[in-house]
Amino acid sequence: MGSSAPALPPPFSLLPPRPGHPPYEPFPGGEFFRPGAGGPVIEAMGRRLIAEGCDHYRHGPGPEWNEAHRKSYASWQRRLGFHGKDADGVPGRVSRDRLRVPNSQAQQSR
């Protein structure tokens, strides 16, 4: 039988985390995900959404939070069984933890 580990898009791998860094990006809180917010964590989250089949991107995920990220994340929330305001596309702790966004600091080569 095949591995049950989630597929991770490049450049991520299943290397053990570097000391002092958790294997997954820590949840920054729902208030972080607002128009204009940006950073590598948003792009990495978008890559995981694509890997999970929740892709509403025209040109791939970028590092700035936008409507494509929100729509993709809402698809992920619905896939997990959330409805209504709980599937509004703004990440919450439970759904974000289940997405398992690799920690870019933990995955960098040594």
Tell me the major beta sheet.
none
N-C termini distance: 32 Å
The ordered string of helix (H) and strand (E) elements is HHHH
Number of strands: 0
**Which range does the strand content fall in?**
under 5%
Mean pLDDT: 84
Helix content, binned percent: 25-40%
For this entry, what is the oligomeric state of its chains?
Answer: single chain
Give me the number of helical elements. 4
| Shape summary | globular
Structural class: mainly alpha
Unreliable residue stretches: 1-6
Rg is 14 Å
Word description of this protein:
- It is a single chain.
- The chain is an all-alpha fold.
- It has 4 helices and no strands.
- It has helices at 40-51, 67-79, 93-99, 104-107.
- Helix 1 (40-51) packs across helix 2 (67-79).
Features:
110 residues; mainly alpha; 4 helices; 0% strand; disordered N terminus
